[in-house]
Write a structure and sequence with these properties.
The protein is an alpha+beta fold and 201 residues long. 28% of the residues lie in helices and 13% in strands. It has a single domain (24-200), classed as Glutaredoxin (3-Layer(aba) Sandwich), CATH 3.40.30.
Length: 201
């Protein structure tokens, strides 16, 4: 009995860090007149990123230029994995109002995304009906960090703030001009007022 309890505690602790229940933000929790990006902010559209959809086809950010974006690193075996359902609900509600979600599977935390792209795609579709754009599996931290996430997490590159990814399902908000305007931790629901308010514009 003790061994089972110990294993449960170890598993629970591996699912998420203790400080991820709260949001981390830039300078505004919701979109309003006070949330204009600082003058040093750099647009994501001034960068050149090699992105591919989860099926291997090229994906250009030019195709979503002028829309509000939510970028999120995902994983299939995380305590936050059920957020896929909330993300899909958010996308379905606001996709026709200039809002797009881009999902980036990553295996950087707790080895909670061990699958290949095809298996991840099937998992998302079968379990959560995901139809927002999912990108191929990448790294969101460390020496092999993808250039897009290097931009998202470095004030020297995005002109706004350092925002290292702390765990799966961290959410980055990009406004219609391509500027980083919000960063929310894993524990913040995609349907929270902060994020849904941004999605509706």
């Amino acid at each position: 009995m003790y061994r089972c309890l110990l294993l449960f505690v170890v598993f629970a602790c591996s699912c998420s860090p203790s400080n991820e229940g709260a949001a981390t933000r830039t300078y505004s929790s919701t979109m309003n007149e006070a949330s204009t990006p600082p003058s040093a902010a750099v647009s994501i559209y001034d960068q050149s990123f090699d992105l591919r959809r989860i099926d291997g086809t090229p994906f250009s950010l030019e195709g979503v230029k002028g829309k509000r974006l939510l970028l999120v690193n995902t994983a299939s075996f995380c305590g936050y994995t059920p957020q896929y359902k909330q993300l899909q609900e958010l996308y379905s509600t606001y996709r026709d109002q200039g809002f797009v979600i881009l999902g980036f599977p990553a295996n950087n935390f707790g080895a909670q995304e061990p699958h290949d792209n095809a298996t991840i795609q099937e998992f998302c579709s079968a379990n959560y009906g995901v139809d927002f754009p999912m990108m191929e599996k990448i790294s969101v931290k460390g020496k092999d960090i993808h250039p897009l996430y290097a931009w998202l997490t470095s004030a020297k590159l995005n002109g706004v703030q350092d925002a290292p990814v702390k765990w799966n399902f961290q959410k980055f908000l990009i406004d219609a001009d391509g500027h980083l305007v919000g960063v929310h931790g894993s524990g913040v629901s995609p349907l929270s007022e902060e994020i849904s308010g941004f999605a509706k514009g």
